[in-house]
Design a protein that fits this description.
The complex is a heterodimer of chains A (395) and B (269). With 395 residues, chain A is an alpha+beta fold. In chain A, 15% of the residues lie in helices and 39% in strands. The longest helix of chain A is centred in the N-terminal third of the chain and has 20 residues.
Chain lengths: 395, 269
């Protein structure tokens, strides 16, 4: 068996195969079962929000902490995506007092997230608010922030906390630290007084901006500045005005020869697009707020009105009857490229482009009933969301 | 020369150690769906046997006879219902002694093909006889046991059983986790969201470690907030649902599971 060269071929083969034997058992692939989950529940997320606690014995701070928690609970529940658990069911009453909450206590009551925090009054009269958002199952902190402010700003801080919780748990930017500008009507039927008013999005802290002497309509908030654009009948002439909330100053927007109405800001806050009516024809105009230069956007003899910019500022959607009936059209922001996007039965009005850019909301009038609907910017996927005698003007 | 002898002896020892200690250990692995399982010997209706092409099982490793010699083992075929007479004659090859030996081997679950030279050479020599030796009754019965008439179809039925078992395990797991998952309904592009999570379970269905989100780098990237929120929601669903209620005897199949959450399928994209 031994070759003259001194190497035994069979032994060599033996050795090689034996080496392979070492290699093979270790290279077994792990069997992994694969499962697709394609259904679940569309339910609000159960979240436990505990009152922010202050120093021991500080009743005022404790009350502020409770109020802040109350506002956060109300904000999150109103969004429809969260369900705040009843404080009576909490086992661990003071999680902020510990370094880490006892997560098992929160799992037992089915909380998936926990908000806890502190409210401390500082020596100079300000308050320091801090909060933490915990993932109860992963037993980790998800986010935490601290603020120092004047005591009367506690509502705003509560809204900011709600925004942070909302954004962390859903991925979407919160809208709780925002205000609504609207027209407040009051008075008897024959002498209605309409005033421009502003309030927090939860209805608190309302105040009037105008005194009701002149009719005001369709106010719109600037996305970047504390300014409101609206239509006013000041001096008997309907015109678009710009109102600065902080200073209270009002000014006419643009020097147009005719009546201007239906104003809207662009998403970057630099332009206002509106409709001007002259000699029976309405066309769209845009005004650059920085240069105060106005640009005519449409020249069609039909009525063009209710313009709304897209979030990217490249397009806008508007309402026109150039096709014979009231329908929706999109066009390029600089003018031109008009495309019709609504083709259903009935009349379409007051289109609004969503801030995410993926949908356009509108009012549809069909057979005497009003509907609010949405569609994709190319006109597809039209869905009606409401139906009633008087739903209109989504914004 | 002495060095050569020494090395050769060392490798022999290693080989023998592997044969004794290595194989049973590697035989405990669960293997994959294509491995052939133990064949129960019962009668099956014709329609239960699929028309799939017959799958030849890999050659069973041939042990070194001295190690595997066993005492008298009762012929397990005696326990087969008597109407199975057609089976018995065919199942008995010329050498009863060898059949008994091989019958003990199937007590352990599916084995990978052996790489030993002895086994390789023997496998090349006599494949058909080895198949017949595998067909006699096993020690373990499958949960969905079917009865076999034709011995070659036994291999096919075993594969079908295993696939049915895996499918039913998937359904069980899916049903439990779907109950606990809150779908991120308001997310942008919910239709395009896909989250894959790998879970490691103990025998009682509880989590052995925290679930692993595959593609973790997306968790901290800017612009991926929707995905992160959805991934955490999926992870919470698993943590909420644990311990899962799954059959212990098939622990090897579901020990490591990869779940793919697709909210788009439910929300219509």
């Amino acid at each position: 068996m031994h070759a003259p060269s001194g190497r035994c071929p069979v032994a060599t083969v033996f050795r090689l195969l034996a080496l392979l034997a070492f290699v093979v058992p270790g290279s077994q692939a792990l069997a992994v079962l694969k499962v697709d989950i394609t259904r679940g529940n569309v339910d609000p997320l159960p979240i436990a929000i505990t009152p922010l606690i202050g120093d021991k014995g500080d009743v005022i701070a404790d009350r502020m902490g409770r109020d802040i928690a109350g506002v956060v609970i109300a904000d999150l529940e109103r969004s429809g995506l969260f369900k705040a658990l009843d404080p009576a069911s909490f086992i661990d009453k003071a999680p902020a007092g510990r370094i880490r909450p006892r997560f098992a206590d929160w799992r037992v009551i089915n909380a998936q997230a926990l908000v806890s925090g502190r409210a401390d009054r500082m020596g100079d009269g300000r308050v320091r608010i801090e909060f933490r958002l915990w993932d109860v199952f992963a037993e980790q902190q998800m986010t935490g922030l601290a603020y120092t402010a004047r005591p009367d700003a506690w509502r705003r801080i509560a809204h900011i906390i709600a925004d942070a919780v909302y954004k962390r748990l859903t991925g979407e930017d919160g809208y709780f630290d925002s205000r609504v500008v609207f027209v407040a009507e009051s008075g008897p039927r024959r002498m209605r007084i309409k005033r421009l008013a502003i309030m927090d999005q939860d209805g608190e802290s309302m105040r009037y901006l105008t005194n009701g002497e002149h009719l005001v309509l369709t106010p719109r908030f600037s996305p970047t500045a504390q300014e409101v654009t609206y239509l006013s009948y000041f001096g008997g002439q309907p015109r678009v005005y710009l109102y600065n909330i902080d200073s209270g100053k009002q000014e006419v927007l643009g020097d147009f020869p005719g009546m201007t109405f239906a104003p809207r800001f662009s998403f970057d806050g630099n332009k206002v697009v509106m409709s001007m009516a002259r000699d029976g024809n309405s066309d769209l105009y845009s005004l650059d707020l920085r240069t105060r230069v106005s640009t005519r956007l449409t020249t069609h003899p039909a009525i063009d009105t209710s313009p709304s910019y897209a979030p990217d500022g490249e397009h806008l959607v508007f309402n026109s009857d150039r096709g014979g009936s009231q329908q929706l059209y999109t066009m390029r922001a600089g003018g031109g490229g008009v495309r019709r996007i609504s083709f259903g039965r009935g009349r379409y009005a007051t289109p609004v482009w969503s801030p995410r850019g993926d949908l356009i909301a509108f009012t549809k009038i069909y057979r005497g009933r009003f509907h609010i609907g949405i569609m994709h910017p190319d006109g597809s996927g039209e869905r009606l969301l409401t139906e009633s005698f008087l739903d209109e003007g989504p914004t | 020369m002495r060095a050569g002898v020494f090395i050769s002896a060392l490798l022999h020892v290693a080989l023998i150690t592997l044969a004794v200690a290595g194989l049973p250990f590697s035989a405990d692995d669960s293997g994959n769906d294509n491995d052939i399982v133990i064949i129960p010997v019962d009668v099956v209706r014709a329609e239960d046997v699929s028309a799939a092409p017959k799958i030849k099982p890999p050659p069973a490793p041939r042990k070194k006879r001295p190690q595997r010699r066993v005492a008298e083992v009762p012929d397990a075929l005696d326990n087969v219902p008597t109407f199975d007479k057609a089976v018995r004659p065919r199942a008995r090859p010329k050498a009863p002694q060898r059949r008994r030996t091989a019958r003990l081997a199937p007590r352990v679950k599916p084995r990978p093909p052996s790489r030993f030279s002895a086994g390789k050479i023997a496998a090349l020599l006599d494949k058909r006889e080895r198949e017949k030796k595998k067909n006699p009754p096993p020690a373990e019965t499958d949960r969905n046991a079917k009865k076999v008439v034709d011995l070659d179809a036994g291999a096919v039925v075993a594969t079908v059983n295993r696939r049915r078992l895996t499918a039913s395990l998937r359904d069980a797991m899916r049903a439990q986790i779907e109950r606990c998952w809150i779908v991120p309904a308001g997310a942008r592009d919910a239709g395009a969201l896909t989250i894959r999570i790998r879970i490691f379970l103990n025998r009682d269905g509880s989590l052995a470690r925290p679930p692993e989100i595959i593609d973790r780098s997306r968790m901290n990237k800017a612009g991926q907030e929707f995905w992160r929120a959805a991934a955490e929601g999926a992870r919470r669903a698993v943590q909420k649902c644990a311990p899962l209620d799954l059959p212990r005897e098939h622990f090897d199949i579901w020990r490591v599971t990869e779940l793919t959450f697709e909210p788009g399928k439910m929300l219509g994209g």
